[in-house]
Amino acid sequence: MVWLLPPVAARADGSQATPGDVLYQPSVGQEGKDVIWVPTPDALMQAMLDIANIQDGDILYDLGSGDGKIVIGAAQRYGIKAVGIEYNPDLVALAKRHAARAAVNDKVTFIRGDIFKEDFSEATVLTLYLLPQLNVKLKPTILAMRPGTRVVSNSFDMGTWPADATIELEGGRGYFWVVPASVQGRWQLGAHGAKPAAELDIQQSFQLLGGRLLLNGESLSILSGRMRGEAISFTYGTRSANGDEPRGTFKGTVRAGILAGTLSDQGVDVQLSGGRIGQALRSRP
Predict the structure, then answer these.
(1) How many CA atoms lie within 13 A of 221 on its CB side?
(2) For residue 239, what are the β-bridge partners?
(3) Which of 257, 270, 259, 215 is closest to 233 using CA atoms?
(4) What is the pLDDT of residue 5?
(5) Quick one: angle between helices 89-101 and 69-78, nearest 10?
């Protein structure tokens, strides 16, 4: 795949100048509304898009899109719809000219706006290169997005929200998250048509899970659990002074208020589904 990235002008000494054109040449480090402008290196940009596992039908939003490099790169490489939100009107105009030269005008949109005021809730992939305090400020909005939304940040993390994966390159770093579904609380699970055989009391910290499983009257600990979008998985068993003793696993999904999946208890698999306590149980789709 050939990437037709925004042009980079060469100085007289052969070194590379900032991406721009004859109408506007941005300067690395120039001040913006909340951040200074620094372009993302090509290798890190490619790694950020790769880790997001972009598929047909995805919609990418780049917050603080600058000269449009990531938006244009995503549209070229994957043929998806991509949108950039940028406060600096000169950078927005430059990004639009880059998009025209790259022949992706039909796939990309650049919005001159404030990332804290614009709506990017339709995104399935979100990229950003902001300061740490801005990431933290955006965190509640991002966590409220559709479970499964992939988020990639250049250089800076999300504070107390641990990354699902990190990118380590010479001269660059990135952080990757998948927005988790909310499963905090108590759930009743049972086989189809039968009364509940299990009760879950889930404690959730972002994508990490703990809590208790009441299985046929026996109370067990959730030893380790994790959300990845709508997918839930955990190991359960007992805890003692001598360490954890795993007994079984659960793998499933949480969708439309229904938690459903396979409980593997001491080699026996059981299909269970149910809802939060206080909600009527519904049949598994």
Answers:
(1) 10
(2) 244
(3) 259
(4) 46
(5) 30
Reduced DSSP (H G I as helix, E B as strand, rest coil) percent helix, strand, coil of the chain, to 5 = 15, 40, 45
How is 129-185 classified by DSSP, letter by letter? ---HHHHHHHHHHHHTSPTT-EEEEES--BTTB--SEEEEETTEEEEEEEPPPP--E
Query: CA-CA distance, 37 to 118, in Å (whole number)?
Result: 20
Give dist(CA 37, CA 179) in Å, integer: 27
CA angle 159, 118, 230 (to 5 degrees): 55
Residue type, 215: L
Token pair, residue 87, equals 């406060």
Q: What single-letter DSSP state applies at residue 8?
A: -
Angle at which helix 69-78 crosses helix 42-51, to 10 degrees, equals 50
DSSP 10-52: BPTTS-B--S--SS----TT-B-SSSB--PPPHHHHHHHHHHT
Spatial distance between the Cα atoms of 24 and 42, rounded to a whole number of angstroms: 21
Residue 282 clears pLDDT 70, i.e. is over it: no
Tell me the average pLDDT across 187-209: 87
pLDDT per residue as tens digits for the range 79-99: 999 999 999 999 999 999 999
Helix (H) or strand (E) holding 190: strand 185-190
Closest by CA to 37, choosing from 62, 82, 67, is 67
Six-digit token string for 146: 């559709």
**Would you say 40 and 47 are in contact if contact means Cβ atoms under 8 Å apart?**
no
165-169 β-sheet, strand order: 108-112, 81-86, 59-63, 125-128, 150-154, 172-178, 165-169
User: Count of CB atoms within 10 A of residue 155's CB?
Assistant: 18
Percent of the chain with pLDDT strictly greater than 70: 86
The first and second tokens of residue 225, run together, are 């659990």
Strands 150-154 and 208-215: unpaired
